[in-house]
Amino acid sequence: MKKIILSGGGTGGHIYPAVAVAEALKMRFGGDIEILFVGAEGKMEMEKVPALGYRIVGLPIAGMQRRIEWRNLLVPFKVWRSIRKARRVIREFGADVVVGFGGYVSGPVLWAAQRMGIPTLIQEQNSYAGVTNRLLARRAEKICVAYDGMERFFPKDKIVVTGNPLRFTTRHASKAEALRHFGLSDEMPVVLVVGGSLGTRTLNEMMKRWIVERRTAERQKIQVIWQTGKYYETEMRRFLHENPCDGVWQGSFIDRMDLAYAAADVVISRSGAGTVSELCLVGKPVIFVPSPNVAEDHQTQNARALVDRGAAWLVTDAAAVVHGMDEAARLLASPATMADMSRNVSSLAKPAAADSVVDEIEKLL
Questions:
Q1: In 183-310, which residue ranges form alpha helices assigned H by DSSP?
Q2: What's the CA gap between 251 and 232, in Å, rounded?
Q3: Where exactly does CATH 3.40.50.2000 map onto the chain?
């Protein structure tokens, strides 16, 4: 029986790549594998991972707050306690390989495993490597990345370009089926605005401005699938009630992203690593609006990696409210540009990323 620990969390961008690898491991080894997740107590992985049928253990780890707060004084003690618990969990589980997917929880787990002589592998989702993964890289056996040029962060001989593991798959949905699902017409183009599971204030304000000003003939020729996010759902529903608008589907969450992508002609989105990988897979022209509120501005780095290859456009967060939808209209007016972008973004897709990571884990086994 092969035993694998997968550690990462705090956000879906760290959790779901780990889940995708877990699913690929089960496909590869069947009943000859046992998987244990290790997350951070009180974080979303402690709810999401068990809901998917996997066992998870929580560590009392916490990250440093960017603001000066008294809670930062507790961080060294939580790190020490987390390392002690990680060592105990690794020993009792009998791990053969430990895999880290980023987020501060993976730090104590990989640190402990490396000093216990257990092979470790790092999966870095972003084009700008996170602090935890950079610190752990020297003792890791392999580092799986999604972007070229990562030798500026990691030892070159340890890097394998696998892409980001995704649970999302492109089902073969027709555009006609997708338009029916969202109640949209086939006579006008569709812009998909994706704000993430919790939502994005900037993209929601962009849509509010566009709807209020949607009196010109040009603006009336565009339909929108608008994912507002859970946090903003009530506010945006109230806004649409007060400002009714034909040709706009609005919801806090899209449970059929395959249909949303099939319906869309252009996508406006944040540029988290998982989202970028999904958009490469579906091959849609995309305008990225990177979040400025992330470590090392890594969303801008992710977007730039595509923009530099002619695979995407970028609008800054500061400019998006006023200019985001106008840029989408400008892109829709140039079918040749859209075709070039689709071709370029599709060339960057790594649909077998989870299997490629499992290949590297199998070598360590």
A1: 201-212, 217-220, 233-242, 257-263, 273-282, 298-307
A2: 10
A3: 2-164+351-364, 175-346
The pTM for the full model equals 0.84
Q: What share of the chain is helix, strand, coil (3-state, %, to 5)?
A: 50, 15, 35
- Residues forming a β-bridge with 225: 192, 249
Helix H or strand E segment including 216: none
Residues 141, 327: Cα–Cα separation, whole Å: 44
Q: Taken in order 135, 120, 89, 274, is the CA torsion positive or negative? A: positive
Helix locations, the chain, DSSP H? 12-29, 45-51, 75-93, 106-115, 131-136, 175-182, 201-212, 217-220, 233-242, 257-263, 273-282, 298-307, 317-332, 335-346, 353-364
CA distance 321 to 319: 6
Contact 205, 268 (CB under 8 A): no
Q: Supply the CATH classification number for the domain 2-164+351-364.
A: 3.40.50.2000
Say which CATH topology domain 175-346 has. Answer: Rossmann fold (3.40.50)
Structure tokens given for 224? 């929108």
- Give strand pairing partners of 5: 36, 98
| Cβ atoms of residues 268 and 194 within 8 Å | yes
What's the token pair of residue 76? 């060294």
Query: In this predicted model, what pLDDT tens digit does every residue of 277-329 receive, in sequence order?
Result: 999 999 999 999 999 988 778 899 999 999 999 999 999 999 999 999 999 99
Which residues, including other chains, have CB under 8 Å from residue 155's CB and lie 6 or more apart? Answer: 137, 138, 143
Q: Which pLDDT score, from 0 to 100, does residue 219 have? A: 67
Express each pLDDT in 8-29 by its tens digit. 988 778 899 999 999 999 999 9
